[in-house]
Amino acid sequence: MTAALSFRRKATNLTMLTLSAVCTVVAVGVLIFILGYLLFRGGSDLSWDFFTKLPVPVGETGGGMANAIVGSAKVLLFATCIGVPIGFLGGVYLAEYSGARAAAAIRFVTDLLNGVPSIIIGIFAYTLIVVPMKKFSALAGGAALGIMMIPIALRSTEEFLRAVPNNMREGAMALGATKWKSVATVIIPAAIRGIISGMMLNLARVAGETAPLLFTALNNQYWSPGFGNAIATLPVMIFTYAIAPYEELHKQAWAAGFVLLSLVLAVNITARTIIASGTHKAR
Amino acid sequence: MASQAPTLQDTRATRVSGLRSFFNMDGVAQALVWVAGWAIVAITAVLVFELWMNSAETRQKFGFDFLFSTTWDPVNGDFGALPFIFGTLATSAVALIIAVPLGIGASIFLAELAPPRISDALTFCIELLAAVPSVIFGLIGIFVLVPALQVMVPWLKAGLGFLPIFSGAFYGVSILSAGVVLAVMIVPFIISISREVLMAVPRDLREAALALGATQWESTWQVVLPFAKVGVIGSVFLALARALGETMAVTMVVGNTPKIQASLLAPGYSIAAVIANEFPEAGGIQMSALIELGLVLFTLTIIINGAARLLILATETKGAK
User: Fold this and answer.
1) Which candidate from A98, A105, A261 shows the least CB-CB separation from B132?
2) What is the pLDDT of residues A195-213, one digit of tens each?
3) Are residues B43 and B89 in the same domain?
4) What value of ipTM does the predicted structure carry?
5) In a domain, B248, yes or no
6) Number of domain units in chain B
């Protein structure tokens, strides 16, 4: 009786633990599959033309997405100009200046903004910028992505600043530094590695965003001069080409997906390695 | 010394310090960071205001009927949100049914069984999966998952075809396809948050259970999980909020048909997908209707997100005690 019972318990133990391992293998397997498949499909369709040429009309072979690569860079540049300063300074405010109640209120709103679906941020940028300007533009797309960057920029800056030991603040004060001098010359430099890595992760995250660009940056078959015109971006190109009924365009979509994913993962791995090496040193 | 006339250097020094107090870097910096901090609150307030004002036309015309009407007719200007609300909830429900057991299973393995180094390495991989852009999931969805489902669904129908949810013709794009893609997208969130919540459970609880003769699984299932329950549910809510608002991957595989059908194999539509598809060409009252849909989605995700954060906060403070 006891032997049977204990066999049943042992069997349950083994089965359930194995199942949990299987779950992990499945989750990691999906990642490996996605990477492998994109490498296989996208890598084989990738050529030098992809980086140097403009898209060609359906029916012609060749062509590339040079305009979309530059377009993504321009939109992200403008997004960085909005998201990073506001998020960074806001994070400094929460970590170093604000009272507990103001911090709680701002943190609450920040989490709320972070949870807003990206398509709604797209509507927001549309009503705020596209409607008054009466045209789709790189500015509107950049603003949408910039707003998406703010919450994470703020929270990661705050977290890394809070990780700076208090005796550094006290040391700076004891040497007669004013508040701002101690923040700018002692505390921020101590946390700068983490803050920059956080910003890189943040940029990589919005680099793949498609929904907020659909009706702000729109798309463009040609080069888009300046920031005031509709502009092509990699994610929107992938979407447009993937749902088009032409095999040629599907190939381009895979190649673009491969380039986009490689960039995003490269930035992710670099930033996470920097953060990890930083915490090891602090120990 | 004191009676001497001030030298050139002295006056310069006073002038510089005068300038300093005039600009007062400390005050400027404080004002600047204050503005940045509250700018986020202002931006969020303007966001809500814009959604509210720009949906005024349909809110006044249809009132609460908007939420319960099943008609979506841009040509005649008649709009109802129900098919989209249904599609959003149905795809998210399918995603949760797949992702919750998978995610919790994996987080148990990573938090309780795997050696720290392997656990960290695998978690790193899973967090990379969370970084994959949604349009890439859509791409894989269209060209890999949909063809694969077309092979698998006939088996499913042979076994479970008597259930209304697996009835009818299957064309590839469907609520089911969208749900599966969403499941893959939200699993990383469930795993990484649940793992952290499980690891916050005090070590003595596990040791006490094992000392009483429990097997590893019994200690996990009867002691650790109940302790961390609220936080794990929080992670599921957070994942749900993401699934509800996910746009691209759903748009690409859901079929974009504004109908309410019982079968998961039938095509559907979600709130985010209809905004993505119709917004660029919409004008007038149709735009107002789409923005009101946005407002509905916004409210849904805010409620779910808020609940998730409260739950996660509750467990983390419980573990810290």
Assistant:
1) A261
2) 999 999 999 999 999 999 9
3) no
4) 0.91
5) yes
6) 2
